């Protein structure tokens, strides 16, 4: 034991052995085979360095064979390449010294492969172009594709040499795409061609087996790419669909591109009459109504495209769900469950506002059912109308249009009872009801035009109000030539005449509604002529732009350019000629509408920049003057919330004292301020003559004048907030980012921004009551600022529209108790309750359809317009006159149902409804996934007709039927699967 201890002590005393360097350890770990390989490569490099040219080619061939023969894992570098790395610079030097010929090209090929391990960018592709262009392999092709896009952008296009290089790069891209498509790497091929802006190459290589995956990927990428690349992606997908005989999908792409002429062309080229009917149904759901007279069986197509049978299918769904029994507003409110305050007694509500709210709620809840309890007969309806005053009568009479929605024959019969009463307000409301009934339905006889055009030039302004807004709703997004291009006194021409009318009845309200109706009918057409006439009217009325009705004309201009993207750029600059602040507000309005649903990140950044500015309103100036002047010896420094906002949007922690963003105006802290340029103070002697000494005082006066004349551009900021929502709603990631931005905007933004944020939250999640947004709006609805609270309450109705969401219903009932004494807030709570129970939970306001790929322009226009009205709610929807503007929402109301149809054998060309078993579950994103992944999860089996909630997808439960459309939504036409019966017979024989 003593011996062992002594030995241990001796070992401890001895110096530790020096460790070998890491490289030497790795060399020791190398196997004999690796050592031999390294020696062989070194010997080949030595031969290549010799002057004897006869040794070069055998050496290069030997190197090539060694590299090709090497095997390694997917995650590690092949050993020959690893051993050749120290010789990489020498190889490049030798290549430069070699004479032109096949040996030099072979050397370039070898350097290109070695470039995969090099830190120098673009060597791989650069020497590939110098080489012999041999076939490419798996690992090598990835490096070429990565470097190709960077090399393409840096090559330029100005010189002849650059053009030649681009031709060579296109050839290389051709080879890479061919390799990708051959080995099931369609996504990589698409990405490469998007980078080099040559998507047209894709059409040559895509085969029928993989065209669905490619097209799905291109369409899904379009919201993530800037303009005009997004249109190019959809255009390529359309070309591929047409190439492989998928005209229905091609029509959907043409709808995304907003190209009516292309839609007509594809429909005319389609040979299958049933498939054409399905196209007409999809166009009707999108509210694009075309003239099919020149197409075979055009009458049947027009019938299905007009949505004239929609109410029949909707009623069949209601009977299936057993909800045909009408409901009353009180049955929605359930006032007996509201907690009233003790000793408060009965609430003294403003009965006028409660009656108006009840009219809207009755219409919302019984929308499309054709039956209600408040207007069951004429006497009862008249009594109900006369409970209101003036414009209240108008809104109450218009509510019958919601009850008879889509059913033109029965609805017009009901409305006819009130067209001949003595009260103008009831007659005007009935005219508006006719427009509401006809909204989204285009009858060949055009009853709305026949009835409403007679009153558009009436001597009574109230009659003009109902008829003009009714026309706007009835023909919203109509692409028919008889509506848009009829110069012989058509709808568009008559509405334009209203703008130049000088009658006493042509009030600014009437002209504002005319502008709004023009925008809704011409939505998304980018018709510069119509927009120019409306702009000319605003120019002539430049002294009256403070009138809130002028904002409706501006909104009409913006709706004309909805979704047109770059086509609006010229007009955006044109409207800036209007006086400030109106000009900037209209320019922003047109810009945000042009990029609605596009997900364009650059536009969102511009809007955030607008929101980060600080504009002093007249109220702020008064508050400053009340606080008094600066104390002697220095000036007061005001806190700038814009710095905090800018900091928060940049991802920095805001600082209450002013934040990390430097103030835009340098505020002096000394009694005398010294003028400076770029932060360098100027001496008095350096100032121009006449300003040395007294120049400081003059400059103060100039600054004061500038502050006094500075326009209040806060209205532009409110529009920018809504713009963020309407642009981001087209893309999932952008929506989540926008929600984060809104929290910063509400916390650090100006008052006008804070008031717009709740509306933006409602706009970004329509008919999709997410818990986080509900909780946020619940807090905003108790805000001390009444306008913020009002907007939050209405936004709660928007996000819960048609969902019957139990949590939202409870929150609204609690809000009704909280705002029991405030008639305005209580009216909005009732409206939100009505919207939540829209169509008894069978309708939606969501503008997206066809698996969230198509954005209905008229629905977006309706939602955006309503939120825009709420930016100035006290003068519009909450005033005593213009609450009827809420009926603009009608264009966005659609059934969220799935009804299956089949061609009637007894009546060719006609469709009959059939019950089919379907699976309904949460949609799964399968873009770019290999194989045939499941498209839904957590499904339940139902028999059609069925309701589809937000984010749900349906698929056929068995193979008995085949659908004409890949997306089972709305009205879907099926056909028998001929192979299914054969399979059944084979199974029964077994």
Structural features, described:
By secondary structure, the protein is mainly alpha-helical. Among the domains are: 308-338 and 350-441, no CATH class; 896-989, no CATH class. It has 47 helices and 14 strands. Strands 7, 8, 11, 13 and 14 form a five-stranded mixed beta sheet that branches. It has a three-stranded antiparallel beta sheet with strand order 10-9-12, with no helix packed on it. The chain has a two-stranded antiparallel ribbon with strand order 1-2. A hairpin with a 2-residue loop joins strand 1 (676-677) and strand 2. The longest helix has 23 residues, at 160-182. The termini are far apart. Residues 1-20, 22-28, 342-349, 623-644 and 652-710 have low confidence and may be disordered. Keywords: Proteasome, Repeat. Belongs to the proteasome subunit S2 family. InterPro entries: 26S_Psome_Rpn1, ARM-like, ARM-type_fold, Proteasome/cyclosome_rpt, RPN1_C, RPN1_N.
Portion of residues within helices: 55-70%
Our estimate of the beta-strand percent is 5-15%
Tell me about the biggest sheet? 5 strands, mixed
Please report the number of helical segments.
Answer: 47
Mean pLDDT: 78
So what's the oligomer here? single chain
| Structural class assignment | mainly alpha
Q: Roughly how many Å apart are the termini?
A: 86 Å
Uncertain segments are 1-20, 22-28, 342-349, 623-644, 652-710
User: What general form does the structure show?
Assistant: elongated
Number of strands: 14
Radius of gyration: 35 Å
């Amino acid at each position: 034991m003593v011996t062992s201890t002594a030995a241990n002590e001796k070992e401890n005393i001895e110096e530790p052995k020096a460790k070998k360097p890491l490289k030497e350890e790795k060399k020791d770990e190398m196997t004999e085979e690796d050592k031999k390989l390294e020696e062989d490569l070194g010997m080949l490099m030595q031969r290549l360095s010799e002057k004897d040219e006869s040794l070069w080619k055998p050496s290069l061939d030997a190197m090539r064979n060694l590299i090709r023969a090497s095997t390694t894992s997917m995650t590690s570098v092949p050993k020959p390449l690893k051993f050749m790395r120290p010789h990489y610079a020498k190889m490049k030097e030798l290549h430069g010294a070699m004479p032109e010929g096949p040996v030099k090209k072979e050397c370039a090929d070898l350097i290109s492969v070695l470039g995969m391990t090099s830190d120098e960018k673009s060597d791989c592709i650069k020497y590939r172009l110098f080489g012999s262009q041999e076939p490419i392999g798996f690992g090598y092709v990835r490096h070429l594709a990565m470097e190709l896009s960077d090399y393409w952008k840096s090559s330029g296009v100005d010189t002849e040499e650059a053009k030649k290089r681009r031709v060579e790069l296109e050839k290389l891209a051709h080879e890479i795409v061919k390799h990708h498509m051959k080995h099931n790497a369609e996504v990589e091929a698409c990405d490469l061609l998007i980078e080099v802006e040559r998507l047209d190459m894709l059409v040559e290589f895509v085969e029928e087996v993989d065209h669905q995956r490619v097209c799905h990927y291109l369409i899904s990428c379009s919201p993530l790419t800037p303009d005009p690349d997004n249109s190019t992606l959809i255009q390529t997908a359309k070309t591929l669909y047409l190439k492989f005989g998928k005209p229905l999908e091609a029509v959907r792409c043409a709808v995304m591109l907003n190209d009516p002429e292309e839609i007509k062309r594809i429909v005319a080229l389609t040979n299958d009459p049933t498939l054409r009917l399905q196209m007409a149904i999809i166009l009707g759901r999108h509210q694009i109504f075309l003239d099919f007279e020149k197409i075979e069986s055009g009458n049947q197509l027009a019938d299905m495209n007009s949505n004239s049978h929609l109410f029949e299918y909707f009623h069949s769904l209601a009977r299936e769900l057993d909800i045909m029994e009408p409901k009353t507003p009180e049955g929605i409110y359930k006032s007996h469950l509201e907690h009233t305050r003790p000793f408060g007694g009965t609430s003294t509500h403003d009965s006028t506002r409660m009656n108006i709210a009840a009219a809207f709620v009755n219409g919302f809840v019984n929308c499309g059912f054709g039956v209600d309890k408040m207007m069951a007969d004429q006497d009862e309806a008249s009594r109900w109308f006369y409970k209101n005053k003036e414009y209240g009568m108008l809104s109450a009479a218009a509510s019958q249009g919601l009850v008879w929605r889509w059913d033109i024959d029965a609805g017009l019969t009901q409305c006819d009872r009130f067209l001949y009463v003595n009260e103008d307000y009831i007659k005007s409301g009935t005219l508006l009801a006719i427009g509401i009934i006809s909204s989204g339905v285009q009858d060949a006889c055009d009853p709305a035009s026949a009835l409403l055009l007679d009153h558009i030039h009436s001597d009574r302004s109230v009659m003009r109000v109902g008829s003009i807004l009714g026309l706007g709703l009835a023909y919203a997004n109509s692409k028919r030539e008889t509506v848009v291009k009829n110069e012989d006194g058509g709808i568009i021409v008559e509405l334009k005449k209203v703008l130049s009318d000088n009658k006493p009845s042509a009030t600014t309200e009437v002209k504002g509604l005319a502008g709004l109706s023009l925008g809704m009918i011409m939505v998304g057409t980018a018709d510069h002529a119509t927009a120019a006439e409306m702009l000319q009217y605003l120019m002539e009325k430049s002294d009256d732009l403070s009138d809130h009705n002028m904002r409706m004309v501006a909104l009409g201009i913006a709706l004309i350019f909805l979704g047109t993207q770059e086509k609006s750029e010229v007009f955006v600059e044109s409207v800036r000629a209007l006086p400030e602040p109106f000009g900037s507000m209209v320019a922003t309005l047109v810009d945000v509408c042009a990029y609605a649903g596009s997900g364009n990140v650059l536009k969102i950044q511009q809007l955030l920049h607008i929101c980060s500015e600080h504009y002093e309103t007249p109220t702020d100036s008064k508050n400053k003057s009340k606080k008094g002047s600066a104390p002697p010896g220095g000036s007061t420094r005001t806190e700038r919330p814009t710095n905090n906002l800018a900091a928060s949007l940049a991802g920095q922690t805001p600082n209450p004292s002013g934040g990390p963003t430097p103030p835009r105006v340098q505020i002096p802290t000394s009694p005398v301020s010294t003028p400076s340029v770029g932060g360098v103070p100027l001496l008095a002697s350096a100032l121009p003559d006449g300003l040395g000494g007294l120049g400081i005082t003059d400059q103060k006066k100039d600054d004061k004048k500038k502050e006094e004349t500075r326009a209040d551009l806060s209205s532009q900021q409110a529009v920018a907030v809504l713009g963020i929502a309407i642009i981001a709603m087209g893309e999932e990631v952008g929506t989540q980012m926008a929600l984060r931005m809104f929290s910063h905007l509400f916390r650090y933004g100006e008052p006008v921004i804070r008031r717009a944020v709740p509306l933006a939250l409602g706009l970004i999640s329509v008919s999709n009551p997410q818990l986080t947004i509900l909780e946020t709006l619940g807090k905003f609805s108790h805000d001390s600022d009444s306008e913020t609270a009002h907007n939050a309450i209405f936004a709660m109705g928007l996000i819960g529209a048609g969902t019957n969401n139990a949590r939202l219903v409870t929150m609204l009932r609690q809000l009704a108790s909280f705002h029991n004494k405030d008639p305005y807030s209580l009216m909005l709570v009732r409206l939100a309750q009505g919207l939540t129970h829209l169509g008894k939970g069978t309708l939606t306001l969501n503008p997206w359809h066809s698996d969230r790929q198509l954005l209905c322009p008229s629905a977006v226009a309706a939602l955006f317009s309503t939120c825009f009205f709420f930016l100035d709610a006290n003068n519009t929807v909450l005033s005593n006159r213009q609450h009827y503007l809420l009926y603009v929402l009608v264009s966005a109301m659609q059934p969220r149902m799935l009804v299956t149809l089949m061609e009637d054998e007894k009546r060719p060309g006609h469709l009959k409804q059939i019950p089919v078993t379907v699976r309904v579950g949460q949609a799964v994103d399968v873009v770019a996934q290999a194989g045939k992944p499941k498209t839904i999860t957590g499904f339940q089996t139902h028999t059609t007709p069925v309701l589809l909630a937000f984010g749900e997808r349906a698929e056929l439960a068995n193979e008995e039927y085949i659908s004409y459309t890949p997306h089972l939504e709305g009205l879907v036409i099926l056909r028998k699967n001929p192979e299914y019966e054969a399979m059944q017979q084979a199974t029964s024989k077994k």
